[in-house]
Amino acid sequence: MIYLNGKFLPIEQAYIPVLDRGFIFGDGVYEVIPVYSRKPFRLTDHLSRLQHSLDGIRLKNPHSDEQWRELLEQVIACNEGEDQYLYLHITRGVAKRDHAFPVGISPTIFIMSNPLPAPPPEMLQKGIPAITARDNRWGRCDIKAISLLPNVLLRQLAIDSGAMETILLRDGYLTEGAASNIFIVKNHVLLTPPKSHLMLPGITYDVVLELAQGHAIPYEIRAVSEQEIRLADEILLTSSTKEVMPIVSLDGKPVGTGEPGPIYKQLSQCYQQYKACIMRGQN
Fold it and tell me: What family does the entry list (predicted)?
């Protein structure tokens, strides 16, 4: 069951007009929200990021935070499974095809839920391969826009080469992954780029930094050079659906020892403990 413009209905019965600006222009934004034990994870943070994205494309938020909470809870209740992930999609609406913003139309609002599988144990234990590529996306990657073709093409580079993610480099420095945020470890220090218009401000990115601070793991938020990435002792990937995952090879060469490292193992354990507290309603 999904939500579309005020109605709950089976996804097979959901349709949008062909002149929806999301379909024509990619004129819209989205959010992905993990749900553990039927509780949305860090919902306040996700709604704050949604507001940032809407502000970035100059689209008025159609609902208050409380209204969003009620809608999302109803979608969760309509679907099976204790662990889900919500996909929330807002476009500027339906209008005659013209680049200029139309006046007096209502936005299209779509919410669906899918099962949230746990990251495969083998990937968590053995790690995954990644490649690097030039970050050729637009200059507002902080907006979670539905027009994801550059990310799709960059991620496909990884799939074509037998890897799981593409780490993006712009002017010799790390930005993020095609569908993730990236951390590296060098000399027992966790390093990651600062939030900027060139990367998506990840919710899991925030959680990992909070866990590092709370568990005395040294970290620095600063520009990370390509050379530092290639000489890293560890590389970690974070995202809402993959949580925290180790990258053990980069462009066909081992990262550090070629196995998940101690900082990853500590952060992964801390993340699972934190998530367990969320599921028990202790946060």
Answer: Belongs to the class-IV pyridoxal-phosphate-dependent aminotransferase family.
